[in-house]
Amino acid sequence: MTDQPMYESGLIAHGIDTTRPSVARVYDYALGGKDNYESDRELYRQIMKIAPETPVWARANRLWLKQVITWLAAEAGVRRFIDAGSGLPTVENTHQIAQKVSTDASVMYIDNDPSVVAHGRALLLDNDRTQFTAADLTKPDEVLADPAVAGMLADGQPVALVMALMLHHIADYDETLEIAGRYVDALPPGSYLAITHACNPGDGGPVDVLVTELLEKVKGAFPTLAFRSVEQISSLFHGLEVLEPGVVRLADWHVPGGRVEVDPQVGIRDAIYGGVAHKA
Ligand SMILES: C[S@@+](CC[C@H](N)C(=O)[O-])C[C@H]1O[C@@H](n2cnc3c(N)ncnc32)[C@H](O)[C@@H]1O
User: Fold this and answer.
1) What pLDDT does 232 receive?
2) A Pfam family in this protein (predicted)?
């Protein structure tokens, strides 16, 4: 027997199905990562035929995350972060960004992809101020009852809840709204919510055509993926004070008081919107 089947059988023991693409691993491949398999790379090649800007879009999302975490730690004084739907570890993870600003920043990662749970947990648990919880974010009662999550929220210190490219993996919009609302309700006053989300303007224009074709291509692998209107994405911040520049295309987003980091490549980034909001 070669090493490969033994390795594979180990992965199966962790619940990892290498024969089917996983969102976390396809995204990892788009970012140049190594925690992916042929099934992920094959779907990625199909995606690239429709949307060759995909790696630019993935990097733009990570740039947004870096700007948001840095601003929250440096300017808003946030010391607690929950990265919900964290994905596989990559070049700059939330705790590395936050702890670069403040060594006492604590980060809780949450994800339910078996690859993230198996490979990512050890790598994300870099120091005693980072934690990883394997949980399904569509079950807020269970997530909020988890001792580590409850512990982070217990003493009323502000927390930044980051849901980057995660909420669009819940198929039903009303359920998505309800789930986001449950987490916001649990956040102490002074907390922040930061979201990026796939968008379809639904206007028949080039972005609409592109994401409709893209969704058709990936729906077999990712049946719950939902591109939503700007209005629907904005409503996820219901009851919160959305910071400038509002809920906008990643290509137009900048930190409050800052400027857009100009990148001449746009394309599919038009289909990703992001925003940050404050809970009074
Ligand atoms: C495209 S990746 C985004 C990773 C990272 N947040 C980023 O923006 O760079 C989406 C992640 O959300 C996770 N995810 C999707 N649905 C989830 C759920 N119901 N519970 C927990 N994690 C989920 C996936 O496993 C994946 O790791």
Assistant:
1) 98
2) Methyltransf_19
Is 226 near ligand 1, meaning CB less than 6 Å away?
A: no
User: b/e for 87-108, b at 16 or more Cβ within 10 A?
Assistant: bbbbeebbbbbbbebeeebbbb
- From 65, 169, 276, give the residue whose CB has the most ligand 1 atoms within 8 Å, as the site to mutate: 169
Residue nearest atom 23 of ligand 1, based on CA coordinates = 85
Distance from first CA to last CA of the chain, Å, rounded?
Answer: 60
Would you say how long the chain is, in residues? 280
Can you list the domains of the chain with their CATH numbers? Answer: 3-50 (no CATH), 54-278 (3.40.50.150)
The percentage of the chain sitting over the pLDDT mark of 90, rounded to a whole number, equals 80
Angle between helices 38-50 and 54-74 (to 10 degrees): 100
What does the pLDDT look like over 225-266, one tens digit per residue?
A: 999 999 999 999 999 999 999 999 988 899 998 877 655 555
- The answer to whether the CB of 165 is under 6 A from ligand 1 is yes
Decide whether any atom of ligand 1 lies within 6 Å of the 168 Cβ: no
What tens digit of pLDDT does each residue of 69-81 get? 999 999 999 999 9
The more confident residue out of 38 and 126 is 38
For ligand 1, the distance from its centroid to the CA atom of residue 88, given in whole angstroms, is: 9
